[in-house]
Each structure stands twice: as C-alpha cells, then as structure tokens.
Amino acid sequence: MSNLHPDTLSYKNTVFDFAFHPSEDIIATGLISGHINCVKYVPGPGNNESLWKVRPSKKSCRGLAFNHDGSGLFTVSKDGAIGALDVSTGAVLIKKPDAHDHPINAVKLLTENILATGDDSGTIKLWDVRTGSETLQYSDHEDFISDFDYDTDSKTLVASSGQGTISVYDIRKPIMLTMSENQDDELLSICIVKDRRKVVVGSQEGILNIYSWGDWGDCTDRFVGHPNSIDTICKIDEDTVATGSSDGIIRVIDILPNKFQGVVGEHEDFPIECIKVSHDRTYLASCSHDDTVRFWDIRYLTGNMDKDNEEENEEEDDENDENEETQGDKKDDDNDNGEGGGGGMDVDSDDDSDAPKKKNNRRPKKQAPAPSNPGFFDDL
Predict the structure, then answer these.
(1) Is the pTM higher than 0.90?
(2) Alpha carbons within 13 A on the beta-carbon side of 167
(3) Percent of the chain predicted with pLDDT > 90
(4) Does 214 map to a domain?
(5) Which of 16, 36, 174, 311 is the most buried (most CB within 10 A)?
(6) Rounded distance, CA 369 to CA 354, Å?
(7) In 226-249, which positions are buried (b, 16+ CB within 10 angstroms) versus exposed (e)?
(8) How many domains does the chain have?
(9) Mind listing the pLDDT tens digit for each residue in 248-276?
C-alpha cells in the first residue's frame, strides 16, 4: 500500500471552491478569475494530469457540483449565472444568465434531477436539471446563504445563513418548514451527522452549534475551541467531522461526546475556503487563500487503511498458498522421477523460508469514466 498523496495544485488566483468526481479520481476547481480547471489526481510527485481549463465567465466562480454520474459539472458565479460543462471536454453545454438577481454563493446537487442554489440576498432556488427550469424558490433569509446539506431519506434541505439562522425545507413543498432562533453570529457551514439525529453548524465566532433533528428552535449543544471562524465542514463519518478555519488549520472533531481529535493539515495562516472528501474516502482536499488545493491522506480516519492492509494480507496468503501448491507439485515430480524426497523437501523448505514476502503495491482498479451525457438542461 502506498502512502503517497497527490501533488498540491497551485494556481495564480484564489480557489473559491472545488468538487470531487463521484466515481473517478478527478477534481474540478473554480477560481476567483472565473477559470475552471479539471485535473486527474494521482498519488506521487509529478503524476497529476491536467484534463482541461475553461473560463465560461469573467466573474468569479463561486461554486461547483458534479451531476449524479459525473458526466456534467454545474457552475455558479458572482454574476448570478448557472452553467453546465461537459466533463469529458470542458465544453460549455449551457449557460443560464440571471438565474439569480444576486451573486450565487452556494450550490448542491440534492437528487439526480434537483439542484439547489443560494445567493447573497438569502434566496434559495431549486432547479430541475433535466429542463433547466426553476421548480421552487424560497425567500426566507435576509442575508447570504452560506452552505447546504441534504438528507435523502426525508428529502430535507438544511441551509445556514449570514443572518445567524438555519432554515429547514421539505423540497417537495413550496414553503419553509421552520427556521431556528437567531444566534447573533454569522453561520457559515453546516453538516448532518449522527444518522440524521444532529446537525452541526460552524459560526463566525469559532463555535460549533449542534442542533437536534426536529428541535430547530435553538442549538442543544455547543463546542467551543476554534480560535477563528469555522468556514467549512465536511463529514468523515456519522460521529466525526473535519472543520476548516480561517486560521488555516483543518481539525478533526468527535461529535457527542464532543472532543478535539487532532489536526489533519494546515495552510499556514491562510483562511481555508473549502474541505471535501474524495469519492473513495482516501483523501480530504482543502483550498485556501494561498491559491492552492492540497490533498491529505485520511485512510487512518475512514478505515480504508485497514481494508488495504487486509487486501495485502489476503494477497500474501494467496501467494503463499500458490507457493505451497507449487512446492507440492515439485515434490510429487521429484518422487515420480525416483529422486530422494528428503533432499527435495529440505531444499524447498529452505527456499520457502528465505524468500521475501511480496506486497501488492497496486492501487484499486478505477471504474471506467462515465459516458458523456449532455442531456441535462436539454429543453432549456
């Protein structure tokens, strides 16, 4: 098993957001300059491969989201536009200008067919990606929408906002279900954990506010300890989250019982814009104001390292079994030829004890790239 991670991606401008492909080792990055880059990331120095680079808008790219099968990439920008790119070529399939009247700040694919966007004025819109049409609009906030998370089973969207509240929506209904009490602090990031029993929200003051699902009035617990704002959160597992702070440090936090577990990595003193986990849960990536995207190996957190070790041990056991079978065949051949069986067994035994065990250093076989599907937004 290799413990290498991919090289850092370095740019000439600030990276506002990035997105991991849902099934392939591909990452897309969106820059303040409006450029969008697509890179195949590979462990080891100098192995990353740039696939394409486009600039669909001169305004900053505020967010990215792959579609369900990874064939398309949705983009949102400061000018209020939504776009869709072909992942195989980078070609612009559609650009929907003036999708919002204000700069779009958050985007998330909720289902195979529904995309959510939130803007600086507090407006949330849901889009049918098959037609490009707006299906629902919520205007319950008075300040920017900072982040989304979504529960598939209950079809519930939760949103954090700069006005200090979180809002809750059943995406099948045209009105908001509820809104929390105002925390008198900007809420910047949000994550559903504990099998939908808790929602963790990061704030400008560096406090993790923990809400109980269904009890949205006020948070039921708080975790204090971040010295600066918690700008981004991602889930490691149902009991653990990673936080990215404006002090440049990525921390791992256990939720209920609340405990600081350790530091994954850091961007020196540069604020972290976004952290996300790769499709195979091997890497956590982070982007910062140092104009980079960095990769951190988190198999020790996700359990993938144990799985890799088990696979290696299985490979070694299989090789040992094959060697024993081969040796047994040789013994039978020796006996058939009338040679002394004792001498042959001694030689085989000595060779077997001195032979070094082989380890499988191959990475798991990746799935074939998803076919191009320019069909979304077809009827726009």
Answers:
(1) no
(2) 24
(3) 78
(4) yes
(5) 36
(6) 43
(7) beebbbbbbbbeeebbbbbbbbbb
(8) 1
(9) 999 999 999 999 999 999 999 999 999 99
